[in-house]
Each structure stands twice: as C-alpha cells, then as structure tokens.
Amino acid sequence: MNLTIHSLEKVIDALERTPEEFFNFDSLESTSDKTDNLSLKRINMKIKQLPIDKREKMLVIFESILDNL
C-alpha cells in the first residue's frame, strides 16, 4: 500500500487543486468559496488525526474511488 506520485496527482486533480495549493494548507483561509474552504479543512483535519496505517488504507480506498469516477 504505497502512495505513488501518480495516485497523489489523481487526488490533487480530483480536488481541483494545483500541487502548490494542495500542499499549502495556509492558503485554505484565502479561498473564495467558504463551503469549499470548510470541506477541505475538515478533510485535512480528519486525515491528520488518523494513525498512519489507517491513512494508508484511506488513501487506497480514495484512489480506488477516483479510478472509478
């Protein structure tokens, strides 16, 4: 269960972000769509709270969902 660059790119694309926006969590405060801002913050906080093994499982599941869109 390794996160690859390719799968990370899929996640970033699905979130409609650039790599710079994805990795710059401080920029979340400056997004114009408040609903989008809150959703991304909530997802980010939940992911950070997961143990590493659960994060890896979540990424595999998320990647599978993205592959089937």
- Indicate the radius of gyration in whole angstroms: 12 Å
Distance between the termini: 21 Å
Overall morphology: globular
- Residues in helix, %: 55-70%
Unreliably modeled segments: none
Strand content: under 5%
- Alpha plus pi helix count: 4
What is the succession of H and E elements? HHHH
Give the tally of β-strands.
0
Mean pLDDT: 79
Quick overview of this protein structure:
With 69 residues, this protein is mainly alpha-helical. It contains 4 helices and no strands.
Task: Note down, in words, how this protein is organized.
The protein is built from four helices and no strands. With 69 residues, it is mostly helical. Helix 1 packs across helix 4.
What distinguishing features does this structure have?
single chain; 69 residues; mainly alpha
SSE order and pairing:
Elements: H1 5-14, H2 19-23, H3 34-49, H4 52-67
Helix pairs in contact: 1-4
